[in-house]
Amino acid sequence: MCSVSQPVYPKSPTKSRWHAHHHDFSSRNDKVQSPSHHRLVFVKKTKKKETIMGSSSNDDPGKFLREYAQWEINAFLWISLITITYLLLDKVINLLRLWSHARKIPGPPSSSFCGHSRLLSRQSLTEVLAESHEKYGSVVKLWLGPTKLLVSVKEPALIKEMLLKAEDKLPLTGKAFRLAFGQLSLFASSFDKVQKKRESLGMELNGRILERRNINYAKIVDSAMERINEIMGKGSIDCRMASQQMAFTMLGATVFGDAFLAWSKATIYEELLMTIAKDACFWASYRVTPFWKRGFWMYQHLCTKLKCLTQDIVQQCRRNCKSFCNTDQSSHAVNAGLETALGGPSCSDVLKPDNVFSQELNGHINVKEEPCGNIMGVMFHGCLTTAGLVGNILARLATHQEIQDKIYSEIIKAQNESVKEDQISVDKMLLLLATIYESARLLPAGPLLQRCSLKDDFTLKTGVTIPAGAVLVVPIQLVQMDNCSWGSDANQFNPYRFLSETGRQSDQAHNNSFAGATDDHVDPGQSSFVLNDPNDNTAFLPFGSGSRACIGQKFIIQGVATLFASLLERYEIRLQPGLENNLKPTMNNCVVQLLPSPKIVFVRRDS
Ligand code: HEM
After folding, report:
1. Residue 483 pLDDT exceeds 80
2. I need a labelling partner for 2 at 20 to 30 A (CA). Which of 88, 125, 134, 387 fits?
3. Are residues 299 and 418 in the same domain?
4. What is the pLDDT of residue 338?
5. Where is this region: Disordered (predicted)?
6. Are 361 and 317 within 8 A, CB to CB?
């Protein structure tokens, strides 16, 4: 290939130009094919080369340049070879470390090269993990392939520790967001990338809760009910469809303000968001982004459409802000915060009404970041998760009429006591809040919390070392339905578990047991009852925990409670007539679910 490599590979079939040029010389000396002879040849060639080099640099500058270029190529090849060897060695060392740490973690034996993939093709991951934890304890491993280690943690105290120490999300999660919405400073895999934005958005959300800068939920309910009635006019509606409408309207109004409620393209926006949600993980699961697939470009086209629509509503926000400022200059200073938390075509120069949240998501974007990326990310995550929660609350209220009636009494009582007329405070609606916690506990947003540590290994208190790059999961459904943490009725709907009599509250928190308050006859309207903080129970994880926990938890619980207070004040939620006795709760993927999603009707209380 080249003169520098000849001494190392004297028998190389590739003849260099240098070798060919000195054919006569070689043929005279290359008669004995022994290694020592080759060494001799090398010395002679080198000598000859020196002579030639000397003369060529003097006589023929072109030749000198050619020699020089050859030397450069050689150097480049050597450097590449060394780098590739280094990278491969690094991979091998990491793999050996992974294997050696994994050996110490208990788990079912894997007989094939592909690990437990055969087992996983027969049962769902949650089922496999349920059996493995039963047999091997609170930390178990599974092999998803020869180099892919999955570690599952089920014991609440260990989960808390793990979720604090493992700061990164799986690369797949970050990639799904990046492919759909561009570079974001929220929802990326690496903690370093999201830390700042998490802090600023978290502060803004908490500030909003403290200052009670609330959204007009009555308007949101009206707007969502308009759509729901439209759908009901064409046929029936189930909890899933109704909750999607409510969650989307609520999130839209939170992020973009009232402009969203009057936006003519809201329905298209919702459909696009849901279509993208269905495909996001599929396209992200390709190791190499499949640019050659037509489907991928169609998906990208949808994402671009969503970007354009987001920019459109942001523009509407701006216009609303401007006209608002012309009429009311007094309250704009209150709202400068959210502007810097989300990022996008910033409205920072514009004064805005209280509930425009998009500006916080759009603020401080760097060059690489997608202008409306964070807004789309929050709409995407917020709509899907909130729809899940709202849907489950609707189903529980429709099937537990007595609880719905009690909540209604609570709302009326709070309303009568409320000083401020336009916005009821939900803090006193204990049973409503308990119902939200219980619905979140019974049907979390996903079956697993997923984490990893991209760079460093870390060791848990029990002495188990989790190697960097391992996929860490918490089987959240198993944890949230574990009898040890929630009592013998763990898989039943019982919101009273989050309520306790004033004197017993501290005992309950101390015992970390939410099994005590199972009395259906409790009247939460009595002042002797208090609401337990669900986060006192380490097994309450619908919003995650630790360094990557959901920053929208408090905000969304307040929001969903206010939404339901506003809805139940005017509507009663009932199962569709004739369906009452046909509902069969089924165990699906270790969770008791009402499947298919129950059909419901909204009956106006004043009708
Ligand atoms: C019912 C509604 C919601 C549920 C059930 C929910 C649940 C979750 C969960 C499980 C996580 C992952 C936590 C972990 O891995 O430990 C998460 C992350 C996150 N949530 Fe939510 N969420 C909801 C609504 C919201 C809303 C409305 C916002 C924003 C306003 C929000 C902002 C975030 C952010 C920014 C993260 C990512 C944190 C990160 O990657 O560092 N969430 N959420």
Report:
1. yes
2. 88
3. yes
4. 46
5. 1-35
6. no
| 225-245: pLDDT as tens digits | 999 988 888 888 999 999 999
- How close is the Cα of 544 to the center of ligand 1, in Å? 8
First-to-last C-alpha distance (Å) of the chain: 90
Nearest CA to ligand 1 atom 6: 543
Interaxial angle between packed helices 401-417 and 430-442, expressed in degrees from 0 to 180 and rounded to the nearest 10: 140
**Domain contains 563:** yes
The top-scoring range by mean pLDDT among 4-8, 98-102, 181-185, 382-386 is 382-386
pLDDT at 357 (0 to 100): 65
At 411, phi and psi to the nearest 5?
-65, -45
> How far is the centre of ligand 1, averaged over its atoms, from the C-alpha of 553 (Å)?
7
- Are 289 and 415 in a shared domain? yes
- 3-state class of 206 per DSSP? helix
Which of 238, 241, 240 minimizes the C-alpha distance to 600?
238
Strands 148-153 and 471-475, how do they pair? parallel
SS (H, E, C) 49-70: HHHHHHHHHHHCHHHHHHHHHH
Pick the closest to residue 189 from 162, 170, 165, 166 (CA basis): 170
Q: What percent of the chain has pLDDT over 90?
A: 50
Check: CB of residue 572 under 8 Å from CB of residue 603.
yes
DSSP 3-state assignment of 493?
coil
Are 76 and 188 members of one domain? Answer: no
Distance, CA of 456 to CA of 462 (rounded, Å) = 18
Residue nearest to atom 31 of ligand 1 (CA): 552
Determine, yes or no, domain membership for 58. Answer: yes
Q: Which of 242, 234, 236, 308 is nearest to 272 (CA)?
A: 308
Domain of 65 in residue numbering reads as 3-80
* Atom 29, ligand 1: residue with shortest CA distance: 552
- In total, how many domains does the chain have? 2
Distance 542 CA to ligand 1 centre (A): 9
Last residue of a domain, one of 22, 52, 80: 80
State which of 384, 550, 562 you would mutate to test the pocket of ligand 1, scoring each by most atoms of that ligand within 8 A of its C-beta: 550
How far is Cα 566 from Cα 276, in angstroms, rounded to an integer?
31
Atom of ligand 1 nearest to the CA of 169: 40
C-alpha of residue 548 to centroid of ligand 1, in Å: 9
Mean predicted confidence (pLDDT) in 497-502: 86
Shortest CA distance to 316 belongs to which of 273, 268, 350?
A: 350
25 within some domain: yes
Domain boundary among 57, 80, 103: 80
The closest residue, in CA terms, to atom 40 on ligand 1 is 187
Q: What is the whole-number distance in angstroms between the Cα of residue 201 and the centre of ligand 1?
A: 12
Residue nearest to atom 7 of ligand 1 (CA): 543
Cα-to-centroid distance, 382 and ligand 1 (Å):
7
Instruction: Tell me the CATH number at 260.
Output: 1.10.630.10
pTM of the model: 0.80
For 128-153, what is each residue's pLDDT tens digit?
Answer: 999 999 999 999 999 988 888 999 99
